[in-house]
């Protein structure tokens, strides 16, 4: 499912105009992005949590040239699936 499919599903399920469903979806996503960019975590019970993981700098290698390079420290968002979601996904198998 992509963003436009999510918007369409919300519009149909909640009987909302497409523009309103789009605005709601964009507000939710932007709020989550802002929280993560501030280093805050997000927990949605039954679904999962989003946290920022920090990675130290390290020495890497350019796969094309073999040249050693310094990889700077970085922060990346990480999703940890919730127990209820994990169980529902496994039931579908």
Describe the structure.
The chain is α+β, with helices and mostly antiparallel strands. The protein has a domain at 1-38. The protein is built from three helices and five strands. It has helices at residues 3-13, 18-37, 83-91, and strands at residues 42-44, 48-55, 58-61, 68-71, 74-81. The strands form two sheets. A three-stranded antiparallel beta sheet has the order 1-2-5. Strands 3-4 form a two-stranded antiparallel ribbon. Helix 1 (3-13) packs across helix 2. The longest helix is centred in the N-terminal third of the chain and has 20 residues, at 18-37. The radius of gyration is 19 Å and the shape is elongated. The mean pLDDT is 95.
Question: Which consecutive residue ranges, at least 5 long each, have pLDDT under 50?
Answer: none
Q: What is the radius of gyration?
A: 19 Å
Q: Give me the number of helical elements.
A: 3
Helical content (DSSP H or I, runs of 4+) = 40-55%
Estimated structural class: alpha+beta
Approximately how much beta-strand content do the residues carry?
25-35%
**Terminus-to-terminus distance:** 18 Å
Order of SSEs, N→C? Answer: HHEEEEEH
> How would a textbook summarize the main sheet?
3 strands, antiparallel
Strand order of the largest sheet: 1-2-5
Report the count of strand segments: 5
- The whole-number mean of residue pLDDT values reads 95
Shape descriptor: elongated
């Amino acid at each position: 499912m992509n963003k436009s499919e999510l918007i369409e599903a919300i519009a149909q399920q909640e009987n909302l105009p497409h523009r309103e469903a789009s605005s709601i979806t964009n507000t939710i996503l932007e709020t989550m992005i802002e929280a993560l960019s501030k280093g805050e975590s997000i927990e949605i019970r039954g679904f999962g949590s989003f946290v920022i993981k920090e990675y130290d700098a390290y020495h890497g290698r350019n796969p094309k040239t073999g040249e050693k390079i310094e990889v700077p420290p970085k922060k990346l968002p990480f999703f940890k699936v919730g127990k209820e979601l994990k169980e529902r996904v496994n039931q579908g198998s």
